[in-house]
Amino acid sequence: MRFNIFTRSKKVAVVTGATGGLGKQLVKHLLAKHYKVVMVARNLMQMEQISLHFGKNVTSCICDISQPNEIHYLLQEIRSRFGQIDALIHCAGNIYPGPLDLQSDDMIQKQIQTNLTGAIIVTKELLPLLKRNSSIIFINSLGGLLPLKGSALYSAGKFGLRGFALALSMELRPKRIYVSSIFPGAIDTKMLRQEIKNGGSNLNFCTPPLSADEVCRTVITALRKKKQEYYLPKWSGIQIKLVMLKPALVQLLMPYMERKGKKGKKIWAKRNRNNLQQD
């Protein structure tokens, strides 16, 4: 674990998954709002490149959030350097699309640990450092509202994360620590391109993939307004919640949704042909 030394700030945000397509953009948005940012990720080289680009307002911390001992050390380092933090934002996530019978034990473990267990343990360990009026923000997914055929483990982790966030919100609100979840559809990042190459769901393209900047702007809104849940696109979230009032409707609507997603995927793939070839 390695930190760059910098001066104390009035506002400090910790971001997991900070080297991903969304995480990197979020660092930029937080800096624009005068936060000091602690980047948490496993790739030292990528974090050093980001730190060099953004300068002294960003620090790097190597931490595998699937390893509780590393998370505990993260707590000690942040406490010694900052004392308290103003925001904890969970961007780390992964997915191995495919039917359950083709998932190895390792693939199962990695998805649940990164998408659910790791987020829970990081939150538990860093909770003593959160100030009053601070925020915990989970980047969830519309796949945490709607079950994804062919990505059952991803759905399991994200559904679980939603339940955890809602319960935690009730637990922490009296302490004036606010918990928000953001539910985006597909985000146009390298992770999405890799998912699609490995057989990801066509449902990602029922609506055009979001830009990372759109999601980052919603994170900044959540830091300010502190609502429990945000859906991107908003109307998609409302539709899914209505459908899930009677889950049997999902089976009836799925053929239509898959056809719509297949058409959207063709349009997206045509526009992103060069990026798909490079990744």
TL;DR of this structure?
Helices cover 51% and strands 16% of the residues. With 279 residues, the protein is of the alpha/beta class. The protein has a single domain (12-278), classed as Rossmann fold (3-Layer(aba) Sandwich), CATH 3.40.50.720.
Description:
This is SDR family NAD(P)-dependent oxidoreductase. It comes from Commensalibacter oyaizuii. Keywords: Oxidoreductase. This protein has ten helices and seven strands. The chain has helices at about 20-30, 45-55, 70-80, 105-125, 150-170, 190-195, 210-225, 235-245, 250-270, 275-279, and strands at about 10-15, 35-40, 60, 85-90, 130-140, 175-185, 230. Residues about 1-10 have low confidence and may be disordered.
